[in-house]
Amino acid sequence: MKKMKRLVALGAAAVLATGMLAGCGGSSNTETKAAGGDAAGGGGAAGGGDAAGGDAAGGVEKIDLVFSHINAETHTWHKMAVKFKELIEEKSGGNITVTIYPNNQLGSEIETVQSAIAGMGDCDIVLTGESMQTYVEELGIIGMPYAITSDEHMDAVLNGEVGDELDSLMLTAGLRNLGAIKRGPRNITSNKEIHSPDDLQGFIIRTPESSMTMAAFEAMGAKPTPMAFSEIFTSLQQGVIHGQENPLANIFDASLYEVQDYVIESEHLRAWVYMAISEARFSSFSPEAQAMIEECATEAIAYEHEMFLEEEETLKSTLEEKGMTFIEVDQAPFKEKAVSGVLSVLTDRQKAIYDKIVAADPAA
């Protein structure tokens, strides 16, 4: 990528020299903690002020950061969080520490985003995307089905006028974008064969809390049911929902192959999530600490992107080995219904950004 605060299109993931930190314990170098753990990585940070707490190695004040995400510890996002922790603790000479809470341990995405916006130090760094429409409606456009057509299109969006506008909107909501993390395309999973939108009639599908995703599936005849990611497996197991939609990485890491038979290659959404930090907290740090946080975030996102590219090449065969059957579909009828359904509910401000996203497609 061309800009520090955007998705890094990288060569060899740069200068990541040391190995990942591992294990759990009670010190400030703990990789992850249970939600009920002590407050070593919690809200007792020495937020801003001068760098008097720094030392010769780090030159920055002492800061404790809490990093929350919804995925398992096998997911590349968690490994990215660990890499960020490793980098920032090394470069700050231990003055900046990070405690990571995976698997919704601090709450759902919405709950942890609310905590980060509050800026009390209970949660500082989150991974979030279209769910941010809860705070700024335009940010929901990240979840617009079939808006992004390719990786090149996504890069053009994130590195251009739209990317700058979305950064500003994130700040308006109270979060600072540290970088964008590219996701694989979202596909539907089910226990029945689905070949066209007609097969989705009455199909109860879990979606994130995204009005656009819900409108898209309603337009296709399904019954979208928003719920936390952590509730998907049990809800499928108990028959509360018939299916869900997610990138292959999330399907694998949540072991959904144990409760779903088919992957429908709808590829209805190509999107990203932001690695975002509480602006209230970030603005209280010294310029040196801010620069260090941004630098380490950029390197960690680059590291994740390399893993993402490698993993995407093998995920389909891995899920097939686990027993899932992939169904290739004609995406045109899915796109026609989804886009028409969502366009009808877009606000004028959302529509304005959508038009800019479409115009940024290098293949258009």
Q: What's a concise summary of this model?
A:
The chain has 364 residues and is of the alpha/beta class.
Chain-wise SSE layout:
Blueprint: E1 63-68, H1 76-91, E2 96-101, H2 109-118, E3 125-128, H3 151-158, H4 161-173, E4 175-182, E5 186-190, E6 204-207, H5 211-219, E7 223-226, H6 232-237, E8 243-246, H7 248-253, E9 262-269, E10 272-278, H8 279-282, H9 287-312, H10 315-321, E11 325-327, H11 331-343, H12 348-359
Parallel strand pairs: 1-2, 6-7, 6-8, 9-11
Antiparallel strand pairs: 3-10, 4-10, 5-8, 5-9
Helix pairs in contact: 1-9, 5-11
Structural description of this entry:
36% of the residues lie in helices and 16% in strands. It contains twelve helices and eleven strands. It has helices at residues 76-91, 109-118, 151-158, 161-173, 211-219, 232-237, 248-253, 279-282, 287-312, 315-321, 331-343, 348-359; strands at residues 63-68, 96-101, 125-128, 175-182, 186-190, 204-207, 223-226, 243-246, 262-269, 272-278, 325-327. It has a six-stranded mixed sheet, with helices on both faces. It has a three-stranded antiparallel sheet with strand order 3-10-4, sandwiched between helices. The protein has a two-stranded parallel sheet with strand order 1-2. Helix 1 (76-91) links the parallel strand 1 and strand 2 (96-101). The two termini are 21 Å apart. Mean pLDDT is 87; it is low at 1-32 and 34-56.
